[in-house]
Structures are given as structure tokens and as C-alpha cells.
Amino acid sequence: MIQIAPSMLAADFLHLEKDIETVNRYADIFHLDVMDGAFVPNISFGFPVIEAIASKAEKPMDVHLMIIEPEKYVDRFAALGAEMISFHLNAAKDPEALLKHIRSLGVKAGLVINPDIPVEDLFPYLKDADYVLLMSVFAGFGGQKFIEATYDRIRSLKAEIIRQGLDIKIEVDGGVSASNAAALAEAGAEIFVAGSAVFKSDDPAAVIAAMRG
Ligand code: DX5
Ligand code: ZN
Which one from 33, 36, 62, 130 is the annotated catalytic residue? Predict the structure, then answer.
């Protein structure tokens, strides 16, 4: 099943409620990009903004942590009601322990890698994850160009998930739009994050519908 996860990083922060309503009505998941200016060279938003979104969200919240020391903060995002929390593989001291900890909070646990990290690096940790977030741009900014090598990475990861007999979803993030969603689905991705494509459009509902294929 395809799920569309609009990235609130591209939302209109002066009219956030309007964009929250778009996700509630037409999409499946709120994708929330948390950046700390240390793991990535950008700072986005944190607890107060997510708490405000949570108060209006009728769809699950997916927190994508682009921060150093993610282990310090996952409990607070879980307490705000996140149903999915992902962290970058190379940001965690002990990825296996952190995945297990996130799951122990009743939250789905996700691993993220940037485009320059081999998908094979994920393989030992897959058994403890509920989903993998494959970056199709380098984490840090919305509005970047989709990296074509992502298709092969999705296929390799999907083959390994099947080989290990696991039930893990592949989420893809960065430069995703109605023009590449079908090919990404074909490669094996099931959750599509889209910021600019949805919120910079005049008709977000139509873009979301088109991405479902
Ligand atoms: C980038 C973020 C993405 C970003 C996607 O670091 O993880 O979620 O907001 O934005 P678009 O869809 O504009 O590439
Ligand atoms: Zn993201």
C-alpha cells in the first residue's frame, strides 16, 4: 500500500493549520523534519511546533531526526505522540539499542541513510527496524533535486528485506513528486515523503492523488 507523507518543512508556517488540514484530508502521514544545525547544516523546528501540529493532526506523525545524539530526545518525541521515529544510522552510538528503545515506547522505529552511505550498512540492523528511510537527496534542505541512483538502492534494500523475511517498509525522502512516484513504487518504495511537490503546488490534493498513481 502506498502512503503519502507530506513534509511539513515546506508548509506555510503563517497558515500552518491550513496545511495540516490538507494532510488530514488527503494524505496519510505527517513527515516532520527535525534538524539541529550540527548533524546537518540547517535548523528547522522542534518540540513546540510539533506539539502544535499534534494538537490538530488526525494522521500519524513521522519524526525524521537529523540530529546528533538522537538517543537523548526520542522519549520526548514519543511523548508528543509520534507514531514513527527515525534517526540517521551514523548519528546513533548504538543503532540496535536505539531501535529497540524506540519500539519499547510503542513507536515504530526507522533507520535513515544519506545517499552516500551503502545500503549494505543497514543490513545488520534491519531485524530491529519497522521501516527504512532512504534519502534521495542529502538531508538538510527541502527543494533539492532527486538523485536517480535511488532506484537501484531501493531495489537492493528490498531484495535484502525479502531475503531476511522481514516486514519492513521503505520510505523515500527528497525530490519526490508525481513524476517519479510510480517508478519509485515499482522499485519497492511504499511511503513517499514530499515537501515542495505538495505544498508549493496550487493544488496539493491533486498532487497527492497523482502520487498515489
Ligand atoms: C530533507 C528532508 C525532506 C525534505 C523534502 O532533509 O528530510 O523531508 O523536506 O523536501 P522536498 O520534497 O522538497 O525535497
Ligand atoms: Zn525528511
Answer: 33
